[in-house]
Fold this sequence. Notes:
There is one protein chain. This protein is an alpha/beta fold. The chain folds into 2 domains: 3-100 and 290-308, NAD(P)-binding Rossmann-like Domain (Rossmann fold, 3-Layer(aba) Sandwich); 102-281, 3-Layer(aba) Sandwich (Rossmann fold). The protein has helices at residues 15-23, 38-44, 60-65, 84-90, 102-117, 120-128, 155-166, 180-185, 193-199, 219-224, 242-251, 290-308, and strands at residues 3-6, 27-30, 50-53, 71-74, 93-95, 147-151, 170-174, 189-190, 202-205, 230-233, 256-259, 279-281. Strands 8-7-6-9-10-11-12 form a 7-stranded parallel β-sheet, with helices on both faces. Strands 2-1-3-4-5 form a 5-stranded parallel β-sheet, with helices on both faces. α1 (15-23) packs parallel to α12 and α5 (102-117) crosses α7.
Amino acid sequence: MNRVIVTDYGFPNVDLERQIIESAGFVFEAIQPNCKTEDDIIRTCGHADALLVQWAPVTRRVLEALPGVRCIVRYGVGVNNFDLDAARDLGVVAANVPDFCVEEVANHALAMILSLCRRIPQDHHQILQGGWGVNPFRPIHALTELTLGLVSFGKIARNLARKAAALGFSTIACDPYVEEGVFAEYQTQRVEFDELIQRADIVSLHCPLVPETTHLMNCETLGKMKPGAILINTSRGPVVDEAALVAALKSGTLGGAGLDVFEEEPLSPASPLRTFPNVILTSHAASVSEKAVELLQRKAAEAARDFLQGNDPVSRLV
């Protein structure tokens, strides 16, 4: 009988997936403890026909070692832990959940932007230390004076542009893969990346992690940002060179940063990023709401079920 195995997950439980898979007449299994390495998956998932995966690495080596696996589904949008070329070569169907957490991540980024523009973390920090008064954190500009720059202009960035425009921000964005009309639809000016990082008062990252975007924000690009500008990252941690970011914060070049993702997670207790009052840190939580997580679990399970029933998952990638 066809079997769906969950390699790893961070949810309280996978009861919803179990109900969806078993009600379709298939076997469901969740590996505990979670698989974290290639060897973990190879050792425990050899009897799977389909895998539901959150963070575990599904590489060419894994797929070659598990010839029975014919479908892999990612809990989420990004698939940088999947070797899609290997899946294509080996005839393995790969799918994701592309509509997951669009509202949540846009809202999380906006919350960070508003907090840092209004100097809320800095004021909170100084009050805890016995201080008082906003003058140390000025200038504080009206939102209508500020330009928000969006790096990549997919669903989340477009959602954020719409929300930011309602608050009076001017918005600019760069994305070579989006048609001109989409920018106009969201009242956002299309610019090249170099112009964006030089013009924007806030740079918000929404790009996927690919070789071209790894350490996109580095010493050179951070150095081109406006003095006092703010960097927001709710995309993928390695898009930002954290050592370069720390240097820019220490020098006072940047006015602050909001980070939900990091080069290594969890963030090291020794990370200097923990020491800045003008930095907001959240634990890869931008995607989370009860509604969004339930949708994620349901859509991932339905993709695996649909494949085993002989249908293409709606969100098939290869």
